[in-house]
Amino acid sequence: MTDSTTATPTATDSPTTGPREVRLVSRPVGWPTHEDFEVVESRLPDLHEGQVRVRNTVMSVDPYMRGRMSAAKSYADPYALGEAMTGGAVGVVEESRADGLAVGDHVLHGFGWREVAVLDATAGRKVDPVAPDSAYLGVLGMTGLTAYVGLTRIAQVAPGDVVFVSGAAGAVGSAVGQIARALGASRVIGSAGSPEKVRHVVEDLGFDAAFDYKAGPVSQQLREAAPDGIDVYFDNVGGEHLEAAIGSLRLGGRVAVCGMISVYNDTQASPGPRNLARLIQTRGRIQGFLVGDHYDLSGEYAGRAAGWLASGELQSRETFVDGIDHAVDAFLGVLRGENTGKMVVRL
Length: 347
Ligand code: NDP
Description:
Layout: E1 20-24, E2 37-41, E3 51-60, H1 64-68, E4 89-96, E5 106-109, E6 116-120, E7 125-127, H2 142-154, E8 162-165, H3 171-182, E9 187-192, H4 195-204, E10 209-212, H5 218-225, E11 230-235, H6 240-248, E12 249-257, H7 278-282, E13 285-288, H8 298-311, E14 318-322, H9 327-336, E15 342-346
Helix pairs in contact: 2-3, 5-6
The protein binds NADPH dihydro-nicotinamide-adenine-dinucleotide phosphate.
C-alpha cells in the first residue's frame, strides 16, 4: 500500500489521497495471480478546464484485459507496470469544469480499475440513467455491440440460419444467441461450462439447445445438437470448439472469430484446427473482428437493443462482485467461468 499520510491537500497543491486504484505490478506468465496486482490509494490530479471528476459506480473486467497484462504489443497497448489499469467504467460526475457534463450526470468512460477518475469530458459519454449503470458495460455497451457486430457485419446472419455460439452464458455469448433469434435464426445452439449455465441459456434465454463442453467432446455434442450442421459459428473460445464448428459447417457457412479465451493463459501456442480443408468443400469463411472498428453501428444497435429489451427478446444477466478490493477476484473469476452474463465490479 502507498503511504496515505504524505500530503495534506491544499487548493493549489492538490493531489489528494483517498480513493483507490488497481495497479499491475508484474506481468503474469500463464494464469494471473493476486501477486501481479496491488490496490493502492491514488493521487488525483487537479481538475483542469474541460475535465470532470467522476466517482465510479461500476467497472468492467473483461477477458481482453489478460492480453494487455502481457508485454506483447497487440491491438491495444500493454498496461504499464506500476500504473493503474484502464477499462470500461460508469460513474457519477462529482465535479465539473466542462460544458456538457454537469454534477450528477452518469458517464461511461475508459478509466475503470479505480474508484474515482479525473478525465477530459470528451473522453466520456453521458448515459441515460433510466438504465442501470452496469447495463452500459454489458448489454447496452461494448459486449452487446460485439454480439451485434459479429452476427450482422461479420457472420451476416440471415433468417433461417442455424447459429452456434460458445461462451453462451457469458456477456457476449448470451447476447449473441438472443440477437440471432431476434434476427430470424431458425435454431440457436450454445455451449457453456456447467449444467447450471446450460439450463440458464435454454430455459431463461430461449436457446433451442445447449451443451456442457466439459461433459464430452465438443464435436460430438455439437453434432447431436445440430444434426444437419450449422450456418454460423460465433467463436468466443477457440481451441476444440473452433475445430468442432468448422467440422459442422454447412455450405456457405461463416465463422466470426470474436475471442479465444481457451488460450489466453497458454504459455505456448497450441496447434490450430486440423480440418481447415473443410472450408473448401463448404466455401466457408472465417473472419476475425474487433468491436472497436465498428462503432459506427453503435446507434443502430442501441435502437434495436432498446426494442428487444422492451419486448423481452433480449434479457441480460449480470454477476456482481463488490468493492475494488475484489476487482482482481472478479477478473480472475471471468477467466475461470465464475460469471453468468456480464461480470461487473460494483464500487
Ligand atoms: P464472458 O462473459 O463470456 O466470460 C468469459 C467466459 O469464458 C467465462 O465465463 C467462461 O464460461 C468462458 N471460458 C473460460 N475459459 C474457457 C475455456 N477454456 N473454454 C471455453 N470457455 C471458457 O466474457 P465476454 O463476453 O466479455 O467475452 C467473450 C469472448 O469475447 C472473449 O473471448 C473475449 O475476449 C471476446 N471479446 C472480443 C471482442 C472483440 O472485439 N473481438 C470484444 C469483447 C469480447 P464457461 O463457464 O462457459 O467456461
